Amino acid sequence: MTMQLASTEIASRTAAIVQEMKGLEGPLLPILHGIQEEFGHVPQEALPVIADGLNLSRAEVYGVVTFYHDFRARPAGRHVLKLCQAEACQSMGSDAVAAKFKQLLGIGFHETTRDGSVTLEPVYCLGLCACSPSAMLDGEVIGRLDDEKIEEIAAEVRS
Amino acid sequence: MIPRIYIPGDSGALALGAEKVAKAIAKELADRGIEAKIVRNGSRGAYFLEPMVEVATANGRVAYGPVKPSDVKSLFDCGFLTGGHHKRWLGAPDKIPFLAKQTRLTFARCGINDPLSLDAYKSLGGLKGLQNAVAMAPADIVKQVTESGLRGRGGAGFPTGIKWKTVLDTAGDRKYIVCNADEGDSATFADRMIMEGDPFVLIEGMAIAGIATGATKGFVYIRSEYPHAVATMNKAVEVARKAGVLGVNVLGSPNTFDMEIRVGAGAYVCGEETSLLNSLEGKRGVVRAKPPLPAIQGLFGKPTVINNVISLASVPIIMDKGAAFYKDYGMGRSRGTIPIQIAGNVKHGGLFEAAFGMTLGEIVDDIGGGTASGRPVKAVQVGGPLGAYFPRALFDTPFDYEAFAAKDGLIGHAGITVFDDTADMLKQARFAMEFCAIESCGKCTPCRIGSTRGVETIDRLAAGIEPEKNLALVTDLCNTMKFGSLCALGGFTPYPVMSSITHFPEDFKPAPTRVAAE
């Protein structure tokens, strides 16, 4: 994570992704997902390469990247913990769950712990509304969070 | 015969530990030297019983749930492979009251078998609708869907057949079928369940839509919060292609139809159809003004059918059993069945498919069994974050598009969130405005700015600052948002806000203690 990629490296890897997907109908979102998967975020250096490959202006690409919550401008922590904060989870105490995680991890939403171990994010619905309160840790779904599970997850991400 | 054990791979079941249970069962089988086949099925939707493990016995399936990894040893000791008794024993799954009381048309197969087995799909009546459709004239398919009375299950309730007819009647060198699987509303998971539990029914529905309208390409736009659904749909499309269900000759007919799975990027507003189309095109997910209708100028400016997952997944049974069969269920202008998703603070949460017409009270009290916390029900929000909060006094409202509209509410995607008496309705009203502010696409002013001003005004109400004036201001603001917004995000945010104010006025009364308590 600490290793900084050279901008030429980013440009060449981005160009390969653009080349692979530009034949799709409406290729920009699949390309951005591909880039985020490759680098863990969408680096600034990738934008002109995408714009060039798709014959768009840099402003158009920037506008799309910043519109969507999923695309990160900076890398996330080693773990990403998303806590559902939508109504069904609210009815089962998601506020308290969030407060507990914030206290245990010492960070707020949209923040990463200083050691880079975990990024905490709110999410508005994981479709686990009959198993509330719910969360997603690195793509794995977790339902019916209780104190025991919360402490277990906090310990796991900090280790 | 080697025993078959069914352990759900549905994300709801996984969230409750199904993977650990599967591992424990596999280990126990190995330790005991028993040969058995583990099938990862979808979920039947009774989430209060998940992870629900089933075994196929000589007398049919026997279910056990909710199974914890620590139960596994004793399950084997009790002879669960032959249906033996155990504290988690539930008996035949289709006799479990929550499931037995349902009318499963769209979800008839969901959760029974391996979702990626096309043979299993066919063995339970799958592909019959598509087989009928390939032998019919497009106009006749559209007529049948129109006559069934099927209305858009995404929330708007627009007649599906009429939409299809517009696309059929519009000339175009290329037409598209777009499936809206951006199921962002809290309390809804029906789309996710179908995609994870019976993906072929959606593929079949889309292929029928393609043949009916002359569209040759389909897209399923799935939200990124549903990685399991994305994975299952991708695999299912691959299987369908290999089997000739998709491709240049659908089921050996001269019809061409193929599809792609696309993934959203965390924008709630992309559940709105025109913003979804922009997103698919690779643009910011900004709402488009209508007209032109997507049916005339949709994806890439071409005639496009855009339907919700459940609308499309309901088409195969209509084409199989006929319009009259489907239309026979329901009430008034709401025909057929609706998968009601019972969620939040509720004892028996899950998916309950039933004909339209049950009352809200029956759903919450009889089926849902009241709150999970055991406290009295204070409010239920029907239709997701843009739906109204209903008090107990309105529990006699029948589940029907028009009946809910008459009570200043909406069915939406048929999700119901139950809240107990600890809920603070001012806080819920504030959240509705806050959510709208976070998710607004920014195109129209009432939504973009109104939502932020709404949060501020409700905050002043909470602080007891000029309560009467600020309450009037919120009401006026809601009126502006309702009638001045381009789409349902800004236009429907007033529903949860105003219903909270109307039905729970005591939560909006100045209370200095409230400020102190927070």
From TrEMBL, chain A:
Keyword Acetylation: no
Cofactor: [2Fe-2S] cluster
Family annotation (InterPro entries): NADP_DH_HndA-like, NuoE-like, NuoE_N, Thioredoxin-like_sf
Binding residues for [2Fe-2S] cluster: 84, 89, 125, 129
Family annotation (Gene3D superfamilies): Glutaredoxin, NADH-quinone oxidoreductase subunit E
Keyword presence, Iron-sulfur: yes
Transmembrane stretches, start-end: none
MF terms in GO: 2 iron, 2 sulfur cluster binding; metal ion binding; oxidoreductase activity
Details of cofactor binding: Binds 1 [2Fe-2S] cluster.
Alphabetically ordered keywords of this record: 2Fe-2S, Iron, Iron-sulfur, Metal-binding
Pfam families registered for this protein in UniProt: 2Fe-2S_thioredx (PF01257)
Protein family membership: Belongs to the complex I 24 kDa subunit family.
Name of the protein: Formate dehydrogenase subunit gamma
UniProtKB/TrEMBL annotation, chain B:
Domain NADH-ubiquinone oxidoreductase 51kDa subunit iron-sulphur binding positions: 426-471
Entry cofactors: [4Fe-4S] cluster; FMN
Its biological purpose: NDH-1 shuttles electrons from NADH, via FMN and iron-sulfur (Fe-S) centers, to quinones in the respiratory chain. The immediate electron acceptor for the enzyme in this species is believed to be ubiquinone. Couples the redox reaction to proton translocation (for every two electrons transferred, four hydrogen ions are translocated across the cytoplasmic membrane), and thus conserves the redox energy in a proton gradient.
Name by which UniProt lists this protein: Formate dehydrogenase
Listed SUPFAM superfamilies: Nqo1 FMN-binding domain-like, Nqo1 middle domain-like, Nqo1C-terminal domain-like, Thioredoxin-like
Highest taxon of the lineage: Bacteria
Family: Belongs to the complex I 51 kDa subunit family.
SMART domains, per the entry: NADH_4Fe-4S
A Pfam family reported for this protein in Swiss-Prot or TrEMBL: NADH_4Fe-4S
